[in-house]
Amino acid sequence: MPLTRLERSLRATFIGMATNAVLSAAKLAAGILGHSHALVADATESFADVFSSLVVWRGVVLAAAPADEDHPYGHGKAEPLAAAVVAVLLWLAAGWITIKAFGDVTTTPHPSPAPFTLVVLVVAVAAKEILFRFLWREGQALDNIVVRADARHHRTDAITSFAAAVGISLSLIGGPDYRAADDWAAMAAACVIAWNGWGLLRPALNELMDTAPDQKIRDQIRRLAETVGDVARVEKCFVRKMGYQFYVDMHVEVDPQMSVLRSHEIAHAVKDKIREAMPAVSDVLVHIEPLKVSADKNAPPAADLEP
Predict the structure, then answer these.
(1) How far is CA 290 from the centre of its chain?
(2) Cα 151–154–159 angle (5° rounding)?
(3) Which of 235, 238, 245, 299 has the fewest other C-beta atoms within 10 Å?
(4) 155-182 pLDDT, tens per residue?
């Protein structure tokens, strides 16, 4: 039996969480024993990934909860909210890494990193890149913004691990004079983390603010409504996203001499047409307008005809 959207999202999240826990512990131990501040910073970012996966898990579960009296539109906003939390965690991790690494550069130099720390980082980079590709593919297939956010977090971790590997390599090759390369690599990785945090936060905030989806989606909804018999024109069409579902509010113009019963039937037909062609559309609210009569935007709204 195929897995549901929730089950697939949770599977991806738990795989990422388990992998992060193992890699974080390995990197932290190697960083402490191998005297690598870049690796310790990388391990810290990985531990933040574990916490962010917990946030993703709760966000996915809450978003899948059905609508209730207090949340008539469902709980889909939990997904972008969780993604925003993950983005903030990235910024916090970037800030901590920068402060720690800069402090190490300006104080007494620490011993050069041990060569075995490079082996740990190579394994970590490979594992994180594989994890990123898996979660990104699942997030795209499920149209789940929070799973995609978690995937980006793993890609960020792979980048920080690579930066740490470069810094450690320079420290080992250059000798004592290049010991600070380990710390500079940590700060460079922090910049990448902060940038990825912004890349996650922006779409999450857009969804939380009910930013209109892609124009192609709105145009498709309009075209579908206008194919229904006796629909003269779609005057207005507002679409907002709630999790992976869309909610549509539209004004449809019909013959002003049409009976109320026929208008009601048309509203039903418009709603059914759109939902049948676009399963991601959860609901369509249709307001009937008389043809060639513009609604006064300053007037109080008339009673909507809800199919």
Answers:
(1) 41
(2) 130
(3) 299
(4) 877 877 787 788 778 877 877 667 677 6
| DSSP reduced 3-state for 163 | helix
Give me the sheet containing 233-242, strands edge to edge.
233-242, 245-254, 281-290
CA-nearest of 155, 161, 160 to 121 is 161
Report residue 129 as tokens: 């890149």
Which runs of consecutive H residues, i.e. helices, occur in 64-115?
78-106
Q: Which two tokens stand for residue 126?
A: 């490979």
- Tens-digit pLDDT profile for residues 140-158: 888 777 788 778 777 877 8
* Domains of the chain by start residue, with CATH: 5-208 (1.20.1510.10), 215-290 (3.30.70.1350)
Read off the amino acid at residue 66: P
Q: Does residue 289 sit in helix, strand or coil?
A: strand
Closest Cα to residue 160, out of 124, 123, 136, 127? 124
Distance CA(254)–CA(274), nearest Å, equals 18
Distance between start and end Cα atoms, the chain:
34
| Cα of 139 vs its chain's centroid, Å | 8
Residue at 91: amino acid letter: W
